[in-house]
Amino acid sequence: MTEKKTPTEATSEVVVPERTNSRRRFLMGAGAVVGTSAVAWPMAGCQPAAEPAATPTPAAAPAHKAPSSHVAPGQMDDYYGFWSGGQSGEVRIMGVPSMRELKRIPVFNRESATGWGATDFSKKLLGGRMAGDTHHVHLSYKDGTYDGRYAYVNDKLTARLARIRLATMECDKIVEIPNSQGTHGIFPQRHKTGLVLCNSEFRTPQVNDGRDMKDPSKYAAMHTAVDGETMEVKWQVMVEGNLDLCATDYEGKYSFACCYNSEGGVTLEEMMAADLDHLYVFNLAEIEKAVAEGKTITVGNSKVPVVDARGADSVYVMRIPVPKSPHGVNIDPTGKYACCAGKLSPTVSVVQIDKIADAFAGKIKPRDCVVAEPEVGLGPLHTAFDNRGNAYTSIFIDSVMTKWNIADAIDQYGGGSANPIRAKVDVHYQVGHTNASMSETKEADGKWLVALCKFSKDRFLPVGMLHPENDQLIDISGDQLEVVHDGPTFSEPHDAVIVRRDIIETIQVQDRKDERFAMYEAWAKEDGVELQSTNKVIRKGGNKVRIYITSQAPKFGMNEFSVKAGDEVQIIMSNIDNVQDLTHGFAMCQHDVSMIVNAQDTQSITFTASSQPGVYWYYCNWFCHALHLEMRGRMFVEA
Ligand code: CUK
Ligand code: CUA
User: Fold this and answer.
1) What is the dotted CATH code of the domain comprising 516-638?
2) Minimum-distance ligand to the CA of 382?
3) Could you tell me the pTM of the whole model?
4) What is the CA(108)–ligand 1 centre distance, in A?
């Protein structure tokens, strides 16, 4: 028998740590450089196995009233949550505040359910790569708020940026970022659907062809601009420091990137050495001017123009010194402040954005743009906002969310007596990202906050060696922070945005406006057929066979067809049902073929027919009808 405590027993043993007192040791004077005393802390946080239940930060007592997040059966949520999917390579859609998972959108991953990674279109986008690591998902903007058209998501693993068309919630574009590894922070411009800025976190030799491998002083990183409409890479800025998280202002003037490795180190110790690193500010107008005037280079095989901004501050880039190995940078909903979380410093550095022009002009020092540096807790990572002038910073090492007031932080920094800290709440445990409802827009509404916790430890039934993570929902509508929901998640959403539901308008049957339809139409034209009415086998010469087939519940348009052993078979299937949610699939036994075809959609998939002659059943693998099981047919593979 294991000696498991009931939740009640666990709660009764709660010893609330004296957080306030322990934090005093790290208090710093305004503008002071943080010492190295905080350095040891994150290491403890990185080794959760070494800190077992001996020092738990247990849950608050369970509330017995219905939580404010309760969404009754049959009721719908007020918000769409777009969660990145981490190592799964996907994007997830959650309902907020219920925290119910509504959909998974495959992006950089192979997914059996939909055939993503196997269909012709997805293979074309993926180019043979079948793994990804999505960290940051952001939506396209107009006039400082979401326009409901696109979501963008990074792939850290292969330095790519993908776009999801929100009408269909499907990925429609993927672009690879040249001269980059570890594409991490991304952020779209907020005044219109303009550029999507992408940071390479890992510095590499430029050109990375075997030269300078052992000389990290020659490594550099890229801040890359992708056109959010065409998804073409427009330009890159080369800088010496690594670039972590990204943000844009509300006016289209600047983009921001945190640099935690100003040392240019390649080992942990080297990267942590300096007490000050940088918040980079990119001057977009000056960069675009340089690109237009051809003051650029190219790097390696890439044709993308590169502005070389390595070294000192220039008209292109300014480096604002901030303590220490900073991580997240977030812009408040008024557009006035950039908040850069210290990670190895217990502070958030607040940059007043309208001072930046003077710093670029040399009238003030870059550091003079910092107007507050409140102490928020050990290991601050990311900051979200409400519509009442408050900020909410996720504190990794302390496992808390800290609510603080921006105006009071500025007052305190200027020598005033205000205490900016408003409230703290324990979260469970080791919170990474946080975000609040509409927080990344000028329409922040201060209702809900999520804390995406990296470890759940004792919060859920154990399920083997890997525990779920824990996405906690916090009610921020009052003065205090109230944790109202635990949401276990599988590997490993990093970030999320919470979007008012009226902004998103999806289609219920395919409108055939996706880019991939041009591909199907071209094939149909070549073969002289109509996609949505043709059931026909067309031999293309050699061993290539194209098969047009329709589906309408509960039947395929073709009951059987014949191919030869080893043929390259392309199935082009059109679902001609015109009914919401009437999805069919096409699955071919023993051939690794499985794909979804939604109402009025067309999809195609190519495979090699077995070398073993015989009967192979194909069937509909998405439930569509009482006779769904009978919706099948035979492929005859002839010798
Ligand atoms: S993150 Cu990607 S490694 Cu804070 Cu957005 Cu953690
Ligand atoms: Cu068609 Cu199931």
Assistant:
1) 2.60.40.420
2) 1
3) 0.90
4) 18
